[in-house]
Amino acid sequence: MPVTSVEKDLDALTMTIVADFAVPLQRLWEAYADPRQISKFWGPETWPATFVRHDMATGGRSHYYMTGPNGERSDGFWEFTSVNPPHSFEVVDGFANADGTQNPEMPTMKMRFQFEETPTGSRMTNIATFNSLEQLEQLIEMGMEEGTRSAMSQIDAVLADLASFAAGRGTETQILSDTQVRITRVIRGTAQQVWDAHNEPELMKRWLLGPDGWTMPVCKVAQEPGEQYRQEWENTETKERFGFEGELLESAAPYRSVTTEKMIGMEGPSTQNELTLTPLEAGTLLTLVITYPDVATRDMVLATGMTDGMETSYLRLENEVLASAE
């Protein structure tokens, strides 16, 4: 078990957890930065976690939920107040409603995660600061220490699993719920380069094409929240056209944007697309969480081969756009 000490300071209202790992500092950092990885160890063994949002940048936010052995659900959130990769990050941690908003009836606390190299690998120090002695005692009674020890007992297996999270695996889709899927891919480029490739029309027309034989004659980009965007593709042989349009809801360059999306000419509700870019040693982890109106729509879209089409585009992005920028 990686936890080497747990100390509670009732005067300072803190609980400090130290854990040591036989991996390099960057590897440990990425386990916390990658929503696929932190989901595998943040929750206790009997209450596994699912991160549906994880914006590891100053001003960013995470939303996760833990699922109990009988199907119970407990939601939590992080607000990132400071991020200094790969050495530290600070968050406000609290209980959340199902939509990720703070549950004001439950306490919050501040947590600072510090990462440092050691002679045998790396060390994580987590300092939780409570608002009152009553709050500290309440969370300890709720099993915070035991839950943390249980959660941390799973991290070694995640750190050892290099293959599941390596660059070169291609585009992958994970079903998060009846209405949400998460699409991930490590792009060989910086976060700024990947951001620009998603927001500069001339770059988008070079790679965002799906299978060969299509062009992108219309690429209107929304620059500010509230603005509309529009994208249209045309088959070079049949001249068939299709496209999508929507609204930019949030934008925090170069790590997060949220848009609605709807096929042009189709009736019905839009999807919501949350794009997050996370810097890694091997490049940039692109995470796209798509929220569909219902399970039937989700399954219908996945059955179209969407993931394969996205992989074709991302390969083009790496090989024809980012490689030429080096």
- Number of individual domains: 2
Give the C-alpha Rg.
21 Å
Report the structural category. alpha+beta
Into which percent range does the helicity of residues fall?
A: 10-25%
Largest sheet: 8 strands, antiparallel
**CATH homologous group name of the largest domain:** START domain
CATH architecture of the largest domain: 2-Layer Sandwich
Bin the strand percentage.
35-45%
Family: Belongs to the AHA1 family.
What report would you give on this structure?
With 326 residues, the protein is α+β, with helices and mostly antiparallel strands. It has 9 helices and 16 strands. Strands 1-2-8-7-6-5-4-3 form an 8-stranded antiparallel β-sheet. An 8-stranded antiparallel β-sheet has the order 9-10-16-15-14-13-12-11, sandwiched between helices. A hairpin with a 3-residue loop joins strand 5 (73-84) and strand 6. It is globular.
